[in-house]
Amino acid sequence: MKKILKAVFSTLILFVLAAGATQAQDSKTLEKTFTWNYDLGSEGTLNLKNYDCDLIIHTWNRNEAELRLTVKAELRSAEEKKEMENFLNKLKFNNSPALVSFNTRFWENRKNIAGRKTIKLDRGKTLRYKEFRVKAEVWLPATADLDLNSRYSGINLEETSGNVTLNLYSDKLSARDINGKLDITAKYSDIELGNCKELTADLYDSDIFTGSTLDARYVTKYSGITSKIVQNLDIDSYNDKFKFESCGDISMISKYSYLTSTSAGKVKIDSYEGGFELGECENLEVKSKYTDFLSAGIEDMIIESAYSSKFNIAAARSVTVRESKYTSYKLDLLKESFVLDIGYEDKVILDKLHPEFKTIDLNGKYIKCEAGIAKDISYRFKANIKYPHLNLEKADLTTRIKIKESSDLEFEAFRGEESESLPLIKLSGYEITFTIL
What we know:
Radius of gyration: 35 Å
C-alpha cells in the first residue's frame, strides 16, 4: 500500500512540475497576430518592405491597406515577452490615402553568438530569445500600385490591376495575372508569374516563368527565362537560357546565351558565342561570332557580319551576307536569292534551289559552295575567279565566254534557252570552289 501511495505522490509531483514548466514556458512565449489598417485610395501606392518573412499579398475592393503580422517568439523571460508585445502594440506605420508604408521587419538586428540569440528592436531594447518566427498577410485595393522590397522570403501575390514593382533577393515568388506594368529587379530568386501586359526585368542568377506577355524587356545574367507567348521582346543577355512557346518581334544583344522559340516575327540579334533555335521566323537580322542558328524557315535573312558561326535553315526566301569569315550556311531550300558580299573561308550548302530562284552571288576568298539544281531549271552562269575549282555539268551548258590566263578564269555560260531574265549564278574572288549537285 505504501508503495502505491509513493508512486501516486511521485506522479502528482511530476504533474505539478510539468504544469509549472508549461505555465512558465507560456509566460515567456509570444504567439499573436498584430493588425494594422489604414486608408489607401484605389490609385494610391502600398510600399511594402519584407525580410525573412513568408508573405501572402491579397487584393480587395476596399480603399484600405491592411497588414496582419503573426509573431511566434520564445523569449528568455516573461518581462522580455511583454516588452516585445508592447512594442508591437504601439508600432505605427507612415500612411496617407496616397501612400501607405508597411515593414514586416521591426528589429534592427538579430545575432547568434556562441548560441546566445539576441534581437534588438527598432530603436528599442535588445532581448534574448530561443525561437523567433514571423509570417504576414497584406491586403491592398485591386487597382492600387504595389512597391515590394523583399529578402529571403516566400511570397504569394494575387491578381492585381495596378502597377507592380518588385525588388527581390533570394526570394521565391508566385504571382497570378498582373494587369498593370510590372518591373522586377531580382538576384538569386525564383519567380513564377501569370499573364502580364508589360514586363521589365533586371535579373541576376534567377529563374523566371511567365504566362503570355505583350511586351517584355530583359537585362539578365546567369538566369533562366521560360515564357509562353511574348508579342514584343527586348533582351540584353549574358550567359542566360531563354525558352518561349512563341514570340513576335525580338531584339537581342547576347553573350554566351541560348534562345529557343517555336516561332518568331522580325528578329534582330547581336550574338557572341551562343545558340538560337527559332522555328518559323519572319525576318532575321544578325551580327554573330561563334554562334549557331537553327530555323525551320525564314522569309528574309540579313547577316551584317558573321565570324566562325553556323546557320542551319530549313528554307529561306532570301539570304544576304554582308561580311563573313569561317562560317557555314546550310539551307535545305533556297527560294530566291543567296548573296555573299565579302566572304573568307566560308562554306555554303544549298541542298535544293526552288525552280523560280533568282540569284546566287558569291564574292570572297577560299569559298566553298554546293548547290542542288534540278535538271529542268535554266540559269546563267558567270565566273571571274583566281584559282577556280568548278564542278559543273558542262554537257548541259552553252559557253559564251571562256578566258583562262594562268590561274585566272573568266567564264560565262547558260543552260536552257538563253535570256537575260534567267536566274544568275555569279562567282568572283580568289580560290572559289563551286559544285552543282
